[in-house]
Amino acid sequence: MNKYTERLYNGVIKENPTFVLLLGMCPTLATTTSASNGVGMGLSTAVVLILSNFLISLLRKIIPDGVRMPAFIVIVASFVTMVQFLLQGYVPALYDSLGIYIPLIVVNCIILGRAESYASKNPVLLSVFDGIGMGLGFTIALTAIGAVREILGAGTLFGFRILPDSYTPIAIFIMAPGAFFVLAVLTAVMNQVKINTAKKSGRSVQILDCSEMGCASCSNSACGGRVFSIGESEKNNYTEMEGKA
Amino acid sequence: MSELYHVSASPHVRSKVSTDKIMLCVVISLLPATVFGIYNFGVSALILTLLSIASCVLSEFLYTKLMHQKTTVKDYSAVVTGLLLALNLPATVSWWIPVLGGVFAILVCKMVFGGLGRNIMNPALGARCFLLISFTGQMTSFSSEKYAAIDAYSGATPLAYIKNGGTEYDLMSMFTGRTLGTIGETSAIALLIGAAFLLAMGVISIQIPAAYLLNFVLFLILFSGHGLDLPYLAAEVCGGGLLLGAFFMATDYVTSPITPRGRLVFGIILGLLTGIFRIYGGSAEGVSYAIIFTNLLVPLIERFTIPAAFGKSSEKKKKKGDA
Asked: Is A163 in the same domain as A216?
């Protein structure tokens, strides 16, 4: 895998901003009432992310360290304004349904996070690919959440009815609580898939004790010690520590 | 006699009370209300109750099987959840509503948190609120052929009738339960018999329901605009799910404080919230939301009401003196 495709893989799977890093939760939970809203929000953010990564990486040697945050914000805000006007001009329906969450892309922590941790330290082309990967990962995640919520909560997908008319929509799924349910379940499924593939490929899966004193002293006994990390090495040093909890 | 000392780890004295015995007591105490509900609303109430219980028990059984955990179905807690959920449903809902509610109660409200003892809110009420938000139409339409003749009550619960400014309520029928509502909430007398059984068996303590009901009544006297209007107060207490909630659901061991002072605080917050929801809220009922919201405050309440350990109180005073 060369380093460009590695960036894409990193953004979509390994460090998926929604399901792994749990960044940008505000737009994730608020705008995914339907699959098309999820795609719209994901793509708008992706465009801003790619452009801001590009520009910030380009200017990374010029921006003084002490004022890098205001500088990043100005750059991001400019791109967000452009995206906002473009959406308003060409897809007014999407613009209306996303509402306040378009200007709020400015303070989206994925964008600032990538600017701070990647684009300000790496060459331009790599930063662009990082933006594409992260943007794609965000878009896929939002579309998935939006699709599940729309199917369960309205019986439709991208506006087309896919469940029979006799299906009574479970309205809670297109309201705020539904966003939390779907996000939690999809994250759990993603984690399980990751653990399984890691076990198959012989990498180590370590169940972490999240508190210093170990699981015994933790007040949240419900987690059952299921906080895990997947080792980088391909060595067969898989250690099952789940029994310890 | 053996010369050896028997050494074992604590606890040395064990109570004979077990989870399944307590849960069985709760089931027995709910029977009067269930039987009355079935008498009042007919066979559909019986079918819904059975579906709800079956759904809860089956979800718990399948979940523990799939997750390779020890099956916990035998402790009757899923039966209690299913029964309470059914008692909280109108008798006219479709058959799949209790099934879906049961699955939600067990999977989302209970098992994903780690099962009985670790759930953060009452599973039955969590599921009821889930259903109430999702299927508002079905969950709030009450009707029964029996009461169609009585104009004032057709399609409206006594509580909704009062909320809309009605004043001619029949307290006697609200007390016996010959009125509209969810399956288990209508009959105050059946609920009180069950509650008395629970209190007599020592399964629940009086603090939570007492603090809840008294503070609710106090709130109504002060803020409802009716003042000390006894028939109105009696109607508010008997109507809706207040008695069912106060005696059977707010007292759930897992989701209520274990400290005595905490129980009083818990009951007072419940009374306050129920009063606010009923008087200022859009809906006539507010017991379910009040209970599940206060459930979330329980860890906080417990933290602030831990009783001083024996011998510790003097130390505290000393420290204060030093400061």
From this structure: no
Contacts with B118 from chain A: Cβ below 8 Å: 221-222
Helix and strand totals (H; E) in chain B: 15, 0
- Taking CA–CA distances from A170, the nearest residue in chain B reads B134
Fold classification of B19-303 is Ammonium transporter fold (1.10.3430)
Q: Are residues A208 and A181 in the same domain?
A: no
How high does pLDDT run on average in chain A?
83
**Which of B59-69 are b and which e, b meaning 16 or more Cβ less than 10 Å from the residue's Cβ?**
bbbebbeeeee
Nearest to B46 by CA among B177, B183, B157: B183
Q: Do B130 and A172 touch (CB under 8 A)?
A: yes
Q: How far is CA B279 from the centre of its chain?
A: 20
Q: Would the CB atoms of B134 and A224 count as touching at under 8 Å? A: no
Gyration radius of chain B over CA positions: 21
Q: Of the candidates B58, B66, B71, B64, which has an alpha carbon nearest to the alpha carbon of residue B99?
A: B58
Flag whether A109 is in a domain: yes
Calculate mean pLDDT across residues A239-245.
38
B293 near A CB under 8 A: no
Residues 6+ apart with CB under 8 A from A209: A215, A218, A225, A227
Q: Provide φ and ψ at A227, rounded to 5°.
A: -90, 125
Per-residue pLDDT of A86-123, as tens digits, reads 999 999 998 998 888 999 999 888 999 899 889 988 99
Is B114 at the interface with chain A, CB within 8 A?
A: yes
Interface of A with B in 122-181 (CB under 8 A): 168, 170-173, 175, 177, 181
Q: What is the pLDDT of residues B289-319, one digit of tens each?
A: 999 999 999 999 998 888 887 777 655 555 5
Q: How large is the average pLDDT for residues B194-220?
A: 92
| Domain match, A172 and A224 both | no
What's the gap between Cα B170 and its chain centre?
Answer: 25
Statement to judge: residues A231 and A120 lie in one domain: no
Cβ within 8 Å, pair B114-A222 = yes
Q: How many domains does chain A have?
A: 2
The domain segmentation of chain B, as residue ranges, is 19-303
Q: Is A67 exposed, middle or buried (0-12, 13-18, 19+ CB in 10 A)?
A: exposed
Q: Do A177 and B134 touch (CB under 8 A)?
A: no
Say if residue A148 is in the same domain as residue A232: no
DSSP B4: S
- How far is B111 from chain A, CA to nearest CA, in Å? 10
User: What is the domain range of residue A157?
Assistant: 3-189
Q: Which of A129-143, A174-188, B1-15, B268-282 has the lowest mean pLDDT?
A: B1-15
Looking at the structure, do residues A7 and A94 belong to the same domain, yes or no? yes
pLDDT tens, residue by residue, B56-104: 999 999 999 988 888 888 888 899 999 999 999 988 888 899 999 999 9
Pick from B253, B166, B163, B277: nearest CA to B205: B253
**Which phi and psi (to 5°) does residue A139 adopt?**
-65, -45
